[in-house]
Amino acid sequence: MRFSFWPNPSQPYSDVLELARHVERTGWDGIWYADHFMPNAADTSAPWPEAWITLAAIGASVPRLRIGTMVAGNTYRHPAVLAKMAATLDHITGGRVVLGLGAGWQENEHRQYGIPFYTVAERLKRLDEACQVVKALYKEPKANFAGRFYQLTDASLEPKPIQHPLPLLVGGGGEKVTLKIAAKHADEWNVWGTPETLRHKTAILDAHCREVGRDPKTIARTAVALLFMTDDQAVIERLRKSPPQQAAIVGTVEDVKATIAEYEAAGVDELLVPDFTLGPKAAKIATLDRFIREVAGR
Length: 298
What we know:
Largest sheet: 8 strands, parallel, barrel
Helix content: 40-55%
Number of helices: 10
Strand order of the largest sheet: 1-2-3-5-8-9-10-13
Order of helices and strands: EHEHEEHEHHEEEHEHEEHEHEH
Radius of gyration: 19 Å
Shape: globular
CATH class: Alpha Beta
Strand content: 15-25%
Oligomer: single chain
């Protein structure tokens, strides 16, 4: 099972780079970065760097970790342009990029930047076509695609990614449409969730794979959950009585190890650990180190 790190984009780049170098040295497998332009909050004035530029800088400076977006919003860029960006980064990093792609959901940045938001159904239809565009450009010397939303005409994309294929990760848990898109196109799939959530949605993804004639084992499963690892029983009890809205792993080292075992039993190939709940830099480094040593056994 892989363990990867997800730094909060509101941190200064210097801190993100320091953290990336640290998790590489200490045995983590990857680093993921959110593709948003601002916080999802009433006050959007907090610093929030652009994801792909940040990942390019990290990828050139940190030589081992897998690098990916969690996840790129399809509405922000034409998929052919996005495919070119990811392929270029794959060369910069020597073949370590995962193109994480989702339908887009954060309304405030669309509104502020004048990006069409569409309905949920329209965004998902565009995501389905975008996956096909990316795959065609990576596979074909000259790609052609006649979709409702995107078109390619004898389209070149050179150089091709170093990886064959460059992994396409589809993010999202929508059971009727998003998971079917993943079944058709994804090399990897990601969702926020508890082990119970992963068991449930994995079964649905497997069913979609069978419907489209795909071997479910060809799609890697990845999960995200907040981490609250502490020896303070009062904090643990408080969090268990009033859990966060997002999926969370709560407890002592032994509790966390047991939860990780549940994720692994549910078929999870990679767990992403955000630093959103880990406190100031020194505290988060201490928790990340304890997790990778005592939980992951690195």
